[in-house]
Amino acid sequence: MNLWADILRWAHVIGATVLFGTGAGIAFFMLMAQRTGRADLVAHVAGTVVIADTIFTATAVIVQPITGVLLAQAVGWPLSEGWIVLSLLLYVMTGLFWLPVVWIQIRIRNLARQAAIENAPLPAEEQRLFRIWFACGFPAFAAVLAILWLMVTRPEIGF
Fold it and tell me: By C-alpha distance, which of 125, 126, 133, 104 is closest to 36?
């Protein structure tokens, strides 16, 4: 393999690691904050989560398909390869769950900030949104795990 392919593979693995790690960390910290029931803590953590998603997740979301396509070209994998097609479908599915989650995180942050300012409990809307946010995380996280498995094993899948 050539140096360009090695650099692309490294960048692609870093991007996948960032997606996986940021997703797991965000889920953990949001859940832990929500469990306290403290509006000020939820507001702070949700605010940090919005920033982390903007800096880390969004960047990796952009980098992954670019490095993936370039890597496939560099090593001679056709994009019609079964494991690549399935990875791309799972990637799109993950994005379909992630995009509403971004909006929900912002809304949770804003509702929690308002509750903290008013020294009020977290409103029912915030709790409802958190349940939706949490539920969206399961299929998205499972898809990311499946993509990682496909990247590592590159199984023969016929379509």
Answer: 126
Q: Give the chain's radius of gyration (CA, Å).
A: 18
Instruction: Record the tokens describing residue 9, joined without a space.
Output: 């593979």
Separation between Cα atoms, residue 151 and residue 129, nearest integer Å:
33
Contact 91, 65 (CB under 8 A): yes
Contact 147, 16 (CB under 8 A): yes
pTM across the whole model: 0.90
Spell out the residues 6+ positions from residue 48 whose beta carbon is closer than 8 angstroms to its own: 29
The distance between the two most distant Cα atoms of the chain, rounded to a whole number of Å, is 60
Binning pLDDT at 50, 70 and 90, where does residue 158 land? Answer: confident
